[in-house]
Amino acid sequence: MLLHFTKMHGLGNDFMVVDLVTQRARLENEEIRRLADRRFGIGFDQLLVVEPPRDPDMDFRYRIYNADGSEVENCGNGARCFARFVLDKRLTHKRQIRVETAGGPLVLDVQDDNQVSVDMGAPRFAPQALPFDADEDLLTHRLDVDGKSVEISVASMGNPHAVLIVDNTDDAPVEHLGPAIEAHPRFPRRVNVGFMQLVSSGEIHLRVYERGTGETLACGTGACAAVACGIRRGLLSSPVKVHLPGGSLQIDWAGGESHLIMTGPAERVYDGRIALR
Ligand SMILES: N[C@@H](CCC[C@H](N)C(=O)O)C(=O)O
Predict the structure, then answer these.
(1) In terms of pTM, does the model score above 0.90?
(2) Per-residue confidence (pLDDT) for residue 213, from 0 to 100
């Protein structure tokens, strides 16, 4: 069968977006890995699937798969592309869209300048929220990696994040520490790893080694987690501009149980069809 899809990106974090409201398909793990391959397939960091909601108070169900085929709880850059996609494909006329994800509900707001703001919910720092093997909810934790002790903060944005502060993201040890922390036994469901350089109380540089994908040009939930950890530690104050290799996002967060708002662009690249095996 031929599956219609749209290739999109949010700051270079790229997606294959598939409408399973008007099409039928079974996308198994092996098929997703084949489609994600940048030489033998379409190539993407995440596959985003639009499904009808199971909860009548929601507009859609938003499902997310990493390039390695694993299904995950949340994707921030993907959420902005999801909103553009359902409007462009006329699956809704609403500019405020409520979606259910495996990590909880999200509210997506498409603005007049085509920027999309996403209510990402409240960050959670308790180790069991990720999960992370630690006795207490601390601002920072020590983690032994390859015989060295590194300082991390942890946060869940529906999906799990570890955040390290580095002097300069340009020469941060992303390729070495990223995979080692992603697969660290204290993170039983693996983790996304952010490397944050503080520029001022309202500006950071960030690189993210994503669980199930590797380093991407931008990670929306990673930006939210880094800002939440920075504000909680008293190092940042809202709003914070986050500069990622693919571009910049704005994150607003008043702290505590308040919801974090992420604002940034969402771009369509092309529409296509591909034969499924
Ligand atoms: N690119 C994303 C995050 C995608 C999921 C992540 N790799 C995970 O496994 O949790 C974003 O923009 O948030």
Answers:
(1) yes
(2) 98
